[in-house]
Description:
The structure holds two protein chains of two kinds. Residues 7-21 of chain A have low confidence and may be disordered. Chain A has helices at 21-64, 83-89, 92-124, 130-138, 145-155, 162-169, 183-210, 215-223, 228-239, 241-256, 260-265, 277-286, 290-320. In chain A, helix 3 (92-124) runs parallel beside helix 7 (183-210), helix 3 (92-124) packs antiparallel against helix 10 (241-256) and helix 7 packs antiparallel against helix 10. Chain A folds into two domains: 18-64, no CATH class; 84-320, Orthogonal Bundle (MetI-like fold), CATH 1.10.3720.10. Chain A contains 13 helices and no strands. Chain B has two domains: 33-151 and 317-363, 3-Layer(aba) Sandwich (D-Maltodextrin-Binding Protein, domain 2); 153-315 and 373-437, 3-Layer(aba) Sandwich (D-Maltodextrin-Binding Protein, domain 2), CATH 3.40.190.10. Chain B starts with a helix and ends with a helix. At the A-B interface, helix 1 and helix 12 of A face helix 1, helix 3, helix 4, helix 11 and helix 16 of B.
Amino acid sequence: MLRKARRSEVRLPGNGRRTGSGTAMSRRRSFTIRRAWTIVGFLTPAAIFVFVFTYYPMLSGSQMAFRNWNLNDLTNTDWVGFSNFAAVFTSPSFWTALGNSVLWVIGSLIPQFVIGFAIALLLQRKFVLRGVYQSLIFFPWAISGFLIGILFRWMFNGEFGVVNDLMLKAHLIHAPVPWLADPSSAMTAIIIANVWYGVTFFTIMILAALQSVPNELYEAAAMDGAGKARVLFNVTVPYIRTTLALTVLLRVIWIFNFPDIIYGMTGGGPAGQTDIVTTYMIKFTQEGDYGRASAVGLIVMFMLLIFASFYLMATRRGKEA
Amino acid sequence: MQKLLSTAGVVGLVTVLTVTGCSSGTSGTSGANGGKVTLNMVESLTAPDRTVLLKSQIMEFEKVNPKITVNLISPPTQSADQKIQQMLQSKNGIDVLEVRDLTAGSFSTNGWLYDMTNDLHSWNGWNDLTAAAQQGGMVKDKSYFVPYGFYLTSLFYRKDLVKQAGFAGAPHSWSDVLKQATAINDPSKHMYGYAFRGAKHSDIDLAGTMIPAYIGNKLDVTNNFKMKDGSTIFSAPEARDAVNTYVQLFKKASPSSAIAWGYPEQVQGFTSGTVGFMLQSQEVIAAIDKSTVVKQDQWATTPMPVGPTGVAPRALGSAGWGVAQSSTNKADAMKLVEYLTTGARTIGFAKSNFMVPNVKSAANDPFFSTGHWAAFTAMEKDPATYPLVKEPGQVSWWTDWQQKADTDIQNLLIGKLSADTMLSGWDKYWTDKWKNAG
């Protein structure tokens, strides 16, 4: 009976049990003591960099959330307590943006995952010009999100866009669709652009994970008479589950925090109907209201922290089960 | 081992200090070395051709002033103002900067700009500046920048399409525009009447142009959002009529996707021959000239459409050069500002950027009275019909207002907000702001 594969069950050649553990452990200990200061010496510059360029700006920016910090008038930057947070939570636009964020993440993530997985499975096979094809697949990841937004903005333009042109020629529509002018079609358009962009990341990560699955497992599965679907769901997926879980977690956080495409395509419009929380935050920075923008930033950070904690707990429980 | 550690530590520390700018070197706003000065200059409305011209003028300046070197910084236009803000806030790395009417208010409020009033009054070039240029760089009676020119708005129209639609000539009023644009509009032929701007900065067309035109002579010329009686223009019944015409223009004469149109789509609409009319500033002439679809004899400019009272108030957008308060070389920085805003240089700059010049000596230049500048000349000759007014773009809440207006206008166009609710909201917004600002 074919059971789900686990990494711990795999014994690769040369990975046998260690012997002479006492000698090896003392050698490791002396290595650690001797090299500790060197490691600290090499790590310190990186730690300082991370503190100076990540944690210090984050802490410095966080205090703006509790002050009247408007770049257009910095003559009064008094502490205002939680009033910036209150203003955000009482604004209907924030809740619209939050709802859109959820739609944006789910609508982008699922197609990205499915298509990315499918392409990774195809790329795993050997075929002519596979390297060239892989490079082409990975290409979108190298382009700026904002530039992608501008490109898709023109592609989805109602009058001059190639999307309408092709659909008209294929007789799929009879009149140009004002893609970015209607709130529902604008949301669809930005999600399509994001799916195109994000498929690449899943392909890269899943392909790398697939290449780590030992052939012995497939051979054993074949001997047990498992079909392709069975192999996929009982061998491949369980083996690369950790990579899949982390990739999904990363993408949820990145997509949630990814305003570039929306900003380039619709600017959050029409009338804020395609705003996600981060484009909503950008609008405050454009108004010079860094106090409110920082408040939104902190809210986003806490929401993602809570999500990441629950997600990791859930995936760990699943793994243990 | 110790040597290795100490080397790694020193390299790390030096790198961090260098990157974070904590070293005690000579970097800063400008460096003075052996009497030589380096001025850091930042432009905001960056464009490739304009930067080339600016660099050539700076080279001429450096020849005349051999002890001064100018380091021109050209950030992309989209993020330029934010970059300038950050540089000004850090009080480091900036001597001369491009200031716009929209940024002058906040920059001066924060004490980032040098008050050049006294320097300008003792400057030879001051008297050659037009009255608009002398006043254009002022905030609360203090001069913070010298405008190098003004952005003039005209109505661009397709002569051939107007004729084909059976009209004798260009429209004179907003109701004419609606009539002619509706007649030209034919979506089945992929032809539209008006290049409607429904996305970013849509407030310019409605709140800044159409409503003031409908208000006419009741407008306070020192603030085109205010009536002579002190109330906002949005509280006037004429504002409702203007909004109705605006919505009709969208529904009857514009592509439905124009809710998402910003500046690039407007220009693309006109240059691709898809629309008949476009309200834009003169700098788009360069783009239309390059069009392979719309030929020179097919289009022209005409003065801004008037409202029912026969008046079309016009606010000139301005930009110019200012000096940072934090600059340690203000005298040399002023030299550069004065050099760039006088004589043939400033006229050449205005010509190549299709701007209204800032100096009186340009008045007799035929360039500004012929061809596509005919609309400008016509408006200049008739100040009763086309009075100059001032837009309140220097208030610190201007960007907040623009965001609000853009969102409200899109809600109006998609039917989620009524004209009355929008106008009463705008009336309350400005009344409260003025009240709080004292």
